[in-house]
């Protein structure tokens, strides 16, 4: 094997066809991402996480991602990773912060785990909006957020990445609870 291919679930295409292509407001962007996440839960196509990349100034949707770890047999296939990789592929550039690009933001249903925090730093996004907090992800759903730094927000700000955590947090918590209530699989659980 010398090639890698990752896919989002087939329903993504019809979901996007029913959604606006430009969403200007931050809360509206988050509601879009939480609807995407809820769809992934109800379709049983992955873990309870969704993300999207938007142009900050215009609100243009660049890409979406949902968690497809189990379906794709890939521990790296978190929603944030999928959205960032697909945005970079869409723009044919590994750096979403390239000089001739408009500034981009990642909108994500849960605050990034250790892996996704790292990729956010390399991705070139200028801003992150997140809903559920790491303690919500661990306490409600039982997933492991990994070794994130105690000064999480400051680490991003120091790199020039603005973070708006806890946006519509109770809605983000509700979506995590829905996954639990529907008997969703907790892969890579928190191990003590
Ligand atoms: Zn992650």
Q: Keywords, please?
A:
single chain, Cytidine Deaminase, domain 2, 5-stranded mixed sheet, 8 helices, 40% helix, globular, binds zinc ion
Number of helical regions: 8
CATH topology-level fold name: Cytidine Deaminase, domain 2
- Percentage of residues assigned to helices: 40-55%
Q: Which spans of ≥5 residues are poorly predicted at pLDDT below 50?
A: none
- The helix/strand order is HHEEHHEHEHHEH
Radius of gyration: 15 Å
User: How many beta-strand segments?
Assistant: 5
The chain-level mean pLDDT equals: 96
How many angstroms does the end-to-end distance come to? 35 Å
What percentage of the residues does DSSP assign to strands (E)? 5-15%
Query: What is the SS-derived class?
Result: alpha/beta
At CATH's second level, what is the architecture? 3-Layer(aba) Sandwich
Task: Please give the CATH class.
Answer: Alpha Beta
Largest sheet: 5 strands, mixed
Enumerate the strands of the largest sheet in spatial order, edge to edge or round the barrel: 2-1-3-4-5
The distinct ligands, each listed once, are: zinc ion
């Amino acid at each position: 094997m010398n090639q890698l291919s990752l896919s989002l679930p087939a329903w993504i295409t019809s979901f996007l066809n029913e959604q606006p292509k430009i969403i200007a407001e931050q809360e509206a962007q988050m509601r879009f991402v939480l609807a995407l996440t809820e769809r992934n839960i109800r379709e049983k196509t992955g873990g309870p996480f969704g993300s999207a990349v938007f142009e900050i100034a215009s609100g243009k949707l660049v890409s979406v991602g949902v968690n497809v770890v189990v379906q794709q047999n890939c521990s790296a296939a978190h929603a944030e990773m999928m959205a960032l990789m697909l945005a970079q592929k869409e723009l044919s550039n590994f750096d979403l912060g390239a000089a001739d690009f408009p500034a981009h933001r990642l909108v994500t249903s849960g605050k990034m785990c250790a892996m996704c925090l790292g990729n956010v730093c390399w991705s070139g996004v200028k801003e992150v909006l997140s809903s559920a907090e790491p303690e919500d992800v661990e306490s409600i759903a039982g997933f492991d957020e990994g070794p994130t730094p105690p000064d999480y927000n400051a680490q991003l700000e120091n790199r020039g990445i603005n973070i708006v955590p806890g946006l519509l947090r109770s809605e983000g918590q509700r979506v995590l609870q829905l996954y639990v209530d529907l008997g969703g699989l907790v892969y890579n659980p928190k191990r003590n």
